């Protein structure tokens, strides 16, 4: 009886060691993947900063004014004035679609309760 108990204890310890070994490698793989994702996030943040700087550079008022002046004949853009704004109540929004009609049962087909004896 003692030898069976010792054998079960040894097998339990070996099983737990195998489980801990697998969990350790799974944890190391997850940590490596997490560090890769962090590097990608840092690279994307740097790229976002560059794109914001480019947008600010391209969106300068003096540059836009020059572009409007160069393309006035084609675009007909004029500066925005206070009298050009309108109230939102004057905008004609599209009407919402009508609600779907409920399907009516065909009177020719019997209901399941009518077919049972």
UniProtKB/TrEMBL annotation:
This protein's source sits in the domain of life called Bacteria
Q: Where do the record's region annotations for Disordered lie? A: 88-117
Quote the protein name from its UniProt record.
Answer: Cell division protein FtsL
């Amino acid at each position: 009886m003692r030898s069976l108990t010792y054998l079960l204890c040894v097998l339990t310890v070996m099983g737990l060691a195998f489980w801990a070994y697998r969990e350790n490698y799974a944890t190391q793989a997850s940590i490596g993947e997490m560090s890769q994702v962090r590097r990608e996030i840092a690279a994307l943040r740097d790229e976002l900063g560059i794109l914001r700087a480019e947008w600010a550079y391209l969106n300068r008022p003096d540059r836009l004014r020059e572009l409007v002046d160069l393309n006035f004949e084609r675009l007909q853009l004029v500066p925005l004035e206070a009298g050009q704004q309108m109230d939102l109540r004057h905008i004609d929004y599209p009407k919402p679609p009508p609600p779907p009609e409920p399907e009516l049962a065909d009177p020719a087909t019997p209901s399941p309760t009518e077919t049972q004896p």
